[in-house]
Protein 1
Amino acid sequence: MNAALRLQRVRLAIGGRTLIGPLSATVQPGECLTLMGPSGCGKSSLLAWMAGTLDPVFEAEGRVTVGDTDLGPLPPEARRVGILFQDDLLFPHLSVAGNLAFALPAAVRPASERRARIEQALADAGLAGFGERDPATLSGGQRARVALLRTLLAQPRALLLDEPFSKLDAPLRDELRRFVFEHARDSALPTVLVTHDEADAAAAGGALVRLEAT
Amino acid sequence: MAEALHALSASAAVPRARPPWALRLAPALTLAAFVLPIVAGLAGTLLPAFGWLPALGGRELGANAWRALGAAPGFATALRLSLFTGWAATVLSLALALGIVAFVHHRPWARRLGEAMAPMLAMPHSALAIGFAFLILPSGWVARALSPGLTGWELPPDVATVGHASGWPLVAALLLKEVPYLVLMTLAALNQVPARAQVTVARSLGYGPVQAWFAVVLPQVYAQIRLPVYAVLAFSLSVVDVALILGPGNPPTLAVLAVRWFGDPDTRWVFPASAAATLLLAVVAASIALWFGAERVLGRWALVLLQRGVRRRRSAWLGGAATAAGAALLAAALASMGAMALWSLAAQWRWPDALPSAWTFANWQRQAGSLWLPALTTLVVAAASTLISLALVVACLEHESRQRVARPSRSLWLLYLPLLVPQVAFLFGLQVLLVRLGADGRLSAVIWAHLVFVLPYLFLSLADPWRAFDERYTRAALALGASRWRAFWRIKLPLLLRPLLLSCAVAFAVSVGQYLPTLFAGAGRVATLTTEAVTLAGGADRRVIGTWALLQAAFPLAVYWLAAATPRWLFRRRKALA
């Protein structure tokens, strides 16, 4: 079973100026913590720090752990932290199924089993038969769903959402919110969402931390 | 004011007058300037390869030239050597360049690395090869630095390094130039895709940074570096000056063999020489076709591999190793320059001292008398070919931006034509044509031959910044009442000054480095620093060779530095341009 994600006295600064923190929080599996704040307050940088890809111009301190694992010393690829951005960033040289197969761990074998897992994931997402499609031919909502499936198939221990709904049209946004939070709950993943949209926070349904503009 | 704003917002309001005739003529003239000599030259080499060259008594078509080629001593070895050095240099330089970019692209200093490598491209191949020879000779700087302390050598060891039959010194010298070239081309291509964000996603899926780059970014950018890679392959297979300096002497590479026969006092050798040059053209064409096929097969295989989801965490050390090798190459290039400088200033440099024991300017003073004319010729030819190319290229690009036509992508292949066709394969034919026109051996012929190579490089380096220019500046000037002409001279050219000057520096360096075109179009009578340095490189006096090669390298470097410094100084009070 999955473990909780814990932030301990996390502080983010740039040029000696504190942007965020100190911040402490615990996110249980299946729960979602929402960080809300205006653009430029450093909330996306906080996610980048948790994912291990923070730009070195920032200074960060504090600890982020999943269960007993301290993520701090690990490179991004060893953290097993899935992240979704505003852009779906599907790889344009791979088919939909190719994108998903790239994420699926190598331990899932043989090839027939890999195909079955991908078919199943697509079917669950209402995208049955989309495997051989070129991602460029999909609608925005379909692409966003494939991006989430890709993240989940890599079997992460935690999920980070960096305003993944902000580029979608309003009706689509509701649908996708339901889709993402349902999947996060079903996979029992501790989830952190950053957004500036109150409706996102309401849909996430968990704890809410408001960040100030600095 | 309101009128001005209206003109800015409504592009349809801009008068679309027919461009002046000079602009309309530019594309055709530009193409003719560099495609015609190649086509005519290829024909003029192909015909003698099949026996036809009435001026030298060849009036019967047949395969005699090919029989003579096949029977020539050392032919098979020369062909094998060309194939090995060409393919080894290309495969290694591409592997190293991709490894380096995969390793550095996400690091903050990647940009500065690109800037540091750019001047390396300005170095003429032959100067770099001469400096490299100074390093690796049995009595070279490397052996001197290590002896006798580390090696125990009291005398220079009796081994062949320069001219080693394996061809490895030639391959190494080619890497010195080709790795930086491909790194810069790849870094430039990265701007076209969200490379960083996609690598971040792949890393969050569990892939190391180097594997992530190869899996996710390379397949998207390879199409943009394909032509540069083919140019490297064609160049490595057919290079002459570097092979003369560092390659084996007997037999040499196929390209050197052809040049040697073309220059033989016995003119009957022209026929097998033409056959060898034509064969080299076929070798290059077949190699490019084979490479293209290999791309397809490897690409498909890689896609299958990607979908198995195998994470190779330790892939990072491969990138690190490539970067270390790249750093070693950079150090070797700098040391090559240093070795040339030291020799040109050495009064006495005894084995095994690491440095000369006495210094002097006498080498320069003694050489001054013979240096100045080739130096002046080099300058004149480079300046003339650069300026003519600049006028043609600017006219083409300006025509394009005024017509607002979608640029045909096929023209890119044409631009690469001079970089893909081996020089040996058309320069003899061009020389025959020049003799017919009574122009061989004249400065103007040399300038034209240089233009064939200078023009495409200038076009390739200027086209992107020119096309990226925000035409609203021009529209703003027009709306303020300026004429087309005035908007062009007072607004567009100053704003594009930096890329203009840098492209000219690239073009200048290309001209300075030309060896074979100078030799053939000049009929051996026009001497430049490069032709003299390559000729001298076979000699024994390193103080003399060092002087020539250093001056040869100094010219393009100085021009490059000027081109980089001038806009910085001119616009020192303009933050947006500085």
Note: The first strand of chain B starts at residue 52 and ends at 53.
Protein 2
Amino acid sequence: MAYEELVRAYQDVAVRTAHVIAPSADAEDAAQEAFMKAYAALSRFRAGSPFRPWLLSIVANEARNRRRSAGRREGLALRAAEDRPIGDAAPSPETAVLDHEGRRALVEAVNRLRDEDREVIGARYFLDLSEAETAATLGIPRGTVKSRTARALARLRTVYGEADR
Amino acid sequence: MSHDWLAMDDARREAALRELGTLLATPEGDPPGRPGASSDLATRVRARIVAEGIIPARRPWWERNSVGRSRRSLVLATVLVLAVAATAGAIGLGVPGIRIILGPAPTAEPGPTATSSPPSPTGSPTATPAPGATLGLGQFVAPADIERLTGAEALGFAAVRPDDPALGAPDATYIMAGRLSLVWAPGPAVPATGTPSVGLILTQFRGSIDAGFFNKIAGPGTTVDRVLVGDSPGYWVAGELHLFFYTDHRGRVVEETRRFVGDTLIWTVGDITYRLETATGLDRALEIATSLR
């Protein structure tokens, strides 16, 4: 089945998106459900528009629904093994922006943000989505992405600073 | 390297967040080296679709058997996968792997072709845009530059053209990153297509087809047949198709919005892939394809 190929092409970003939006829910399960819903809704996909944000908006909705029932006990976390990166995408010590302590503090600060703020930070920075993709994924106007990102960053600075003392 | 995120400037703070994104634990846990549980997500989705009998709004063509393509109402389409796999050229040139997934077709019928603008038989390209100019085929090549810009040295391979008297010379030429597209306007030799002022497009680029993926092809409203072009293997993709997803050599999915020109004949000779899009039907497409010199 060819849809399987499409799922394979997008499953990583789908699972990561679900995880960023609802860290305490089962991200794979949410992604799987989203792929099922996307399949059933393929006829509503507007040809000529990019597929990824359309898919991710379904993933985001699914993850949000699960977030409500899953509560917020678990947040995002660094990889185990002293956050040692896997693969070549990770920064080497020489080029890294933050050290281990800095990273841990930053993740904790992100986890303390409200859902709305964490979502936009997650989409823009953790998933590295463009403003347009973020807008489509989160279902908000593009102009809102800009303002919401700025606001979320400001709150993140506050939360990060408070934890420091 | 620092731990003082607050002391950084805005750009640096954003870079730190992006970096953090690459270091987050993945949902399936992190034992490195493990293929990752999400690798069978696709298999599980497929199994569920089959088990639950989910049909995207219309029964897929492979289940419809004799039921003809009746109405073209809302076109949905699953997905169709062509794949152009990585190959290494005889002289050791690495060729990026390209996978093409043809996605859902449009929700509206591609209306009948504009009948109002017959192509100018003399081919005088004055104020009207060249055929195919809006299709994103690449940079338009002026007639004077064709020889220089579409030679083997410029393209990286020797381009060919149909030796078909009825067809004649192309009406427009485009190049984009080693990909050559020749466009003919509709005329006595080629019928009009879903795209105004375009009758036929021949694209050639370096890459090869991985036959394996063609066996998985599905898609309501789309059929794929194996054909021989001369003695080269190829595929005839007929029906509705619109979106292409390429996976480049780094595994990233690249989306390309596709025009609706007609049916597509795609085949490979050596490490060059040819794609001919037209509404002429298979027989005529094969005639044109085998005339390439």
Note: The radius of gyration of chain A is 17 Å.
